[in-house]
Structures are given as structure tokens and as C-alpha cells.
Amino acid sequence: MRTTVIIIGAGHAGLAMSRCLTDHAIDHVVFERGEVANSWKTERWDSLRLLTPNWMSRLPDYRYTGDDPDGYRTMPETIAFLERYAEVSAAPVQTHTTVTSVRRCDDGYMVATHQGNWHCRAVVLASGACNIASVPAFAEAVPSTVATLTSMTYRHPSQLEEGGVLVVGASASGIQIADEIHRSGRPVTLAVGEHVRAPRVYRGRDIQWWMDVVGIFDERYDDLENLSRARRLPSIQLVGSAARRTLDLNALTAMGVKLVGRLAGICDGKAQFAGSLRNMCTLADLKMDRLLNTIDTWAATNGFDNEIDPPYRFPATQVDASPSLGIHLHSGEIRTLIWATGYRPDYSWLDVPVFDLRGRIRHNGGVVDAPGMYVIGLPVLRCRRSTFIDGAGNDARYLSAHLASYLDSGNATREGSRPGLLLDRALVLDGHADRHIYDPGVLL
Structural domain tally of the chain? Predict the structure, then answer.
């Protein structure tokens, strides 16, 4: 079977790319191993809400139109949003079609699936960045008496045994899971490594409204001083809730959650924690204050001060004078350990030499280091906004135009050469002007 382009993955990024390829009249098919929005349906805990406000769900020719733009969608609402997008955009999705191999051939790619083989001229990798839970190698040393889960397999507190829970990781997933489990009546210990602290609301506006209007989300990947670090940056400590509450380490401590340092290893059944907890928290506090300074400067410069609440600062993160450096997992104090240590993509089916020494795809803003191959849906792909649903539209517009130029020319066009550079630096979401009015190191 043949088509011009194959998109692998029918999440928000794959569907956005499909919509843009349709606008270019490019024949294509979208392969999805499960159903549309499969990861949202099968790999998220029950109470999870999006961290971004509803108005930040803007895809090509589609956006949120409900009566709660400042709310945060539940998982069922998110799934319905994406299913409706696939329907209204008439995306040519083939569900329950697992890709088993992608190989280069003379005039394109051979894509093998468990339902047959396909030939295409170009491939778009849209399978996402969160396919496999990332856990350290020493996870194998957890005693068998302690149940282990990841943020992909955790669903709700009732699936856990009674007793203490150790949550490893204090980014968005870790703090939300720790909060929910503690509220269920189980004692929770949270192992804290590097994290990004921010208030849910600042000066009366959602923090992500500020990051949008100030221009932080629109900083391009090729303007970042340390792109690799930006792409590895932990997700901000935020929670989507009707009360728009701030859920940071101080809030968890006030509830009774115990904070310890980064889980450094497990030896003879003892979990060993790094002694860097205070330093990690101090660094996160400094970065948050730098972000708030940037917001205050923008508000003052743009004559916005009189329309919003006055500036203020949040208390420093409170840390015990001598936090615990270890817990004996054989003691029974901890009955469950949950790894909230992030995710990584799964490209085990990609048989094309496009990986760096760390197993990451080599690409330049989504243009992969192989003729006619593209990737979309990764953090900071083309700008900071790429990390969210809200960024897929701009990425898809650029990459689909680049792909169209590639097909027209019959040659791979690298970004930076003028032929094929159909979209330029001024392209920002929905045509807004390019805005970079902030300290480029604010989140680094």
C-alpha cells in the first residue's frame, strides 16, 4: 500500500500535523496503536486535569469554545476534545494499527504495521515524548515487600495498600500524586530533586497567562543558550483545580507531607537520600522570584500595573533543619513506592540511524536528520510553547510547509537555507507578533 506521508500517532500533535497536511493537499494516513488520544485514555491517573487553562488549547482550525476558558479540563474532557478534533478535521486515522518498523528505502520509507506494509515519501513521528516511564536502574533494588508503581500506572489511592507511600519526584506529577494520596489518609514522603516552582495565580492572573503574554512560551529553540537543558527541564509544580490553588512544597508540608532529598540509591533495602534538599529548594525559589521580576517589569513597561493586583513575593520553601537521609524499606514504614521521575519516548520500531549517543532523535526544530523525516510533539521542539497542546499548531504549520517544499523539490531542505524556509521567525501562535521581553535564563 502507498501514500505520500505517514504520521505515526494520533494525539494532539499528530492530528495537528494531519490538519496542516490536508491544507497543503498532501495525501497522508495517520497510524494509531490504540485509539485517538490513546495515552490520555490509558496512561493517566483518574483525577488528573490539564495544567494549562482551557483557552490554551488552540489547534489548527480548532480551539476551546466553552464557557470556562480559565478552567482546567479533566481527562474525559480532554479526550472528548481531541476525539472531536479528529472528527471535524476528518483526519485519516487508522486506529489499532501498531507500527513495528520504519526503514529507509530508495525513494522514501517502508513502514511495517501488524496490519500490513506501507510505502511513503515522508514520515512524521508524532508518537509523543511520554511513552515509557523513566525510572533509575537501581529501581530493581526495591524490596519485594514494597509495591512499586509509576505515574503511568498509578490511577487512584484505593489501588494502594494501607501504609506509608514514598513518592519519588517533585515536579507536577509528583506533587499532585503526593497531595491526593496524603488526602486519602496515607502518610506520604516526597523525595525532592530539581524542580521548578511557580504560583498558580500571580497578581490576579494565571501564571501561564503571564508566560504567554510576556513572551516566554514563544522563545525559539535556536535562541536558547542551553537547548538540551531546556528540553530536560522538569514540568512546573502546578495543579489544575477549580479553586486555582497553588500546590507547592510549602502547601504539602503544611498538610503533613514529609520532604526528603533526591533519592540517590537503594542499598541493602535502605533508600538513601541526597543531602541537597535545601539547596534544591533555594534554587527553585530564586528562579521563581526571577520569573516574577520579569512579569513585574513587563507589567510596568506596558502600563498594565493599574489594571492588576500589586506585586508580591511568596515565602521561601520551608525545609527541616536535618531532613532524613535514609529510610529502611524493610521496616514496613513504606508500603508503596511511586516513581514520578518523568517519561521518555519509545522509538524501538524506528530502524533509521537518526539517534545521538543518548538515544535521542537528532533534529533541527523538528526536521530530522534523515531526508523526508519529521518529528512533532516533543518538549521545546521549536519553542517553549511546543511542550503544550497549545504549541502543536505552530509546529505543525511550519513542519507541514517544510515537508511540502521537500516533496516539491524532491530533496531534503535543511532549516537555515532559504529555499524551503517557508515560515520564518515572526510566525507565532495565531499570528501574534514575536515577543521576547524577558530574561532568557528565567527558567534555566
Answer: 2
pLDDT tens digits for range 175-206: 999 999 999 999 999 999 999 999 999 999 99
Can you point out the beta strands (E) in 184-332?
188-192, 196-197, 201-202, 205-206, 236-237, 258-261, 263-267, 270-273, 326-328
Among 297, 323, 343, the domain-final residue is: 343
CA neighbor of 192 nearest in space, from 258, 267, 239: 258
Mean pLDDT of the chain: 92
Spacing of C-alpha 324 from chain mean position:
31
Answer yes or no: is pLDDT of 8 > 60.
yes
- 8 A C-beta contact, residue 382 and residue 227: no
Higher pLDDT, 226 or 424: 226
* Alpha carbons 10 and 35: distance in angstroms, whole number: 8
Closest CA to 396 of 11, 83, 13, 57: 13
Query: Would you tell me how many other CB atoms lie within 10 Å of the CB of residue 262?
Result: 19
Q: What is the CATH number of the domain that holds 354?
A: 3.50.50.60
Coil/strand/helix, residue 290: helix
Provide the terminal-to-terminal Cα distance of the chain, rounded to the nearest Å. Answer: 46
How many residues are present in the chain?
Answer: 444
Answer left, alpha or beta for residue 269, where phi above 0 means left and psi between -120 and 50 means alpha: left
Condensed to tens digits (0 to 9), the pLDDT of residues 319-362 reads: 999 999 999 999 999 999 999 999 999 999 999 999 999 999 99
**Owning domain of residue 321:** 134-200+238-343
Residue 348 CA: distances (Å) to CA of 131, 152, 188, 306, 356? 11, 19, 35, 54, 14
Cα separation, 317 vs 278, in Å, equals 9
Note the pLDDT of residue 278: 97
Q: Buried b / exposed e across 70-103, counting CB within 10 Å, b at 16+?
A: ebbbebebbbebbbebbeebebbbeeebebeebe
Residue 223 falls inside a structural domain: no
Mean pLDDT for 199-222 is 97
User: Which of 310, 343, 376 is the endpoint of a domain?
Assistant: 343
- Confirm whether pTM is higher than 0.85: yes
Where would I find the H helices in 122-245?
172-183, 207-214, 227-232
CB atoms within 10 A of CB 387: 21
Decide: 222 and 66 in contact? Cβ < 8 Å. no
Q: Which residues, at least 6 apart from 144, have a Cβ–Cβ distance to it below 8 Å?
A: none
Confidence of residue 115 (pLDDT cuts 50, 70, 90): very high
